[in-house]
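Entry for the shared binder. Reason: the reviewer on the internal report wants the predicted structure included alongside the sequence.
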Amino acid sequence: MLPNESQLSSCLSEVQNFLLSPRSAEERLQTSPLSFWQSFKHLSKISFPRVLSYTFSLQVFIDNLLMVLMSNSEQETASIALISVYLNSCMMLGVAPLYSISIEVSKLLGAIDAEKQGDNNQQIIDEKQKGIISAFCNGLLMSSFISLPLIPAFYWSGSVLTNIFRQDEIAASHAQSFLRPYALGVLPMLFRICCQQVLFSFHYERPTMVMGIVTLLLGVGISALLGFGLPGIQSQGFLGVSAGSIVESYLTAIFLGLSLVLLPELRNINFLRMFNSIEGRWRQLGMQSWLGTTFLLGMVSEAALPVVTSATAGVIGVNAQAAWTFVMQLNYFFVVPTFAFSHQCYQEVSRHIGAESYENANRLAKYGVATTLIYLAPFAIIMSLLPWVFDFGETDTHQLLLVLLPLMSVGLMIESVRYNILQQLKPLGNQLCSSLTSSMCLVIGMLASVVFGVLLDYGIYSVAFSYTACILLATILLFPDWQQRIRPEKLEIMQNQTGSSQGCWPCGQETSDIEREGLTGVVQENADYGTGSSQRATVSAVTPFWQSMSNTGEWLADVLSCCNSPSYFESPRQGR
């Protein structure tokens, strides 16, 4: 029996409410103490749609499959790996600074939600909304600067691959046939990320997910049609696949941009006001640029680690490279969930800090790490058991996987903790030191893999051990500082005391306005970026950075001491 018109209308109404209805201030910001189960449900509810919203990684994977099917030579097949690594690396580095948008928007939105549940002063709410608009506009400005090196990098990708990375000219030429046209997709991709950060902060994950999946299917369909060709349509090969990806980028950017104007709660903010003058915008831009730089710093080492270890495995031998390639392919399936859960976690922590709900910020920080582990640990354990269940062909390769997969599964579980803690430290006030600490540990891991794997000839097991050990080292060094900073009393001190975001002097010897005000919401006159208030008190600077550099021994000691410094820690050079 077919449903009648009223039943269809009711069903469509429920679907519309599920996808588009905005969450109330009470739903976004719960003032009562959150239990573990409440936090787990909340983070799960908002994180899974975000996982499915990251369609770029899935698009790259599908494009690779299409290009493998249409490859006619070894050079074309070899170029697919170049395309995947080059595209992922460039875009990961390009979008990393834009993650700063969600921290600022979530902080301001938390303050708005708290105001709505309190005095509901419309003037204060409007000022905070201007700050959100300004944060989005600053993200667009940052995208413009980011595109300046990215577009040439894609356009002249063949020269970069042959002259800098010393790749085969024919393989690089095939790779360029995909990468050069993709230069047209850089700007819409960056615009897409800016829109996503705002939508995620407002908990519009579900419409973002639906739009991403729909445009992904359209883009893949176009890639397949143009790549393979049809009667009357000549096959365009890699160029056709690239064209479909570009169309997908533009469609997603258009739909997400319209969402900022049309979705209920966002329509009330009126993002078109970004073309108006908003006092404090440029100071906020400086803050976001600084925070984005720390995101970029961490992403550089994270993108380099698998590349260096894979190259090391290739030097060790064919079987080692085959086994390590299989391990890295499984590793990529963990990247998107780790990103999604970690980013949602620091976003919620930022929201509750902005609302001065410190107890719940503490609980979400702790329970967020546990939630990520609960979801990812079972898959890591299953991965470690694969070589005991399935036969992977070559005996030598299979024997290597018996050790590599269990060792790497441990590393992936630790990585989910490291990345989550690292991202949480950004809104908690430790921006540069946390990124430097993590990056130095990963660099140590890269060097160790080369030294032990190639120079000392300990084989591929030493590469896997170095990979896991450097992640564990970074986690151990970051954990004490994170544990101190998430304590409710420390969060309150950080929010209310000037200069409290300075965990240690390598984070910036001078107590700058950027560190003092923007990243933690700490202000002298209870003013936020983008709120129209320009009254700022001046804080005396401490000893200049380069003067402190004169004593190398003390400098190294202070770098290490940043890992366990409380959030209100004074600069160790002050007063000396």
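Summary line for the report: Residues 498-576 have pLDDT under 50 and may be disordered.
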